[in-house]
Amino acid sequence: MINQHSHRKDEHVSLAEYFNRANHHDYFDQLRFVHQSLPETDYQQINPSTKLGPLTLKWPFYIEAMTGGSRQTGQLNAQLAKIAKATDLAMAVGSESVALQDPKLIKTFSIVRKVNPKGIIFANLGASHSYQDAQKVIDIIDADALEIHLNVPQELIMPEGHRSFHWLKNIKSVVSNVKKPVIIKEVGFGMSKETLKQLQSIGVKYANVSGHGGTNFAKIENYRRPEKDLSYLEKWGLTTPESLFEARPFEPEMKIIASGGIKNPLDIAKALALGASAVGVAGVILHSLLRRGPDKTIQMIKDWQRGLKIIMTMLGYKDIAQLQQQRLLLSPSLISYLHQRHLT
Ligand code: FNR
Question: 313: closest CA among 35, 74, 101?
Answer without folding.
Answer: 35
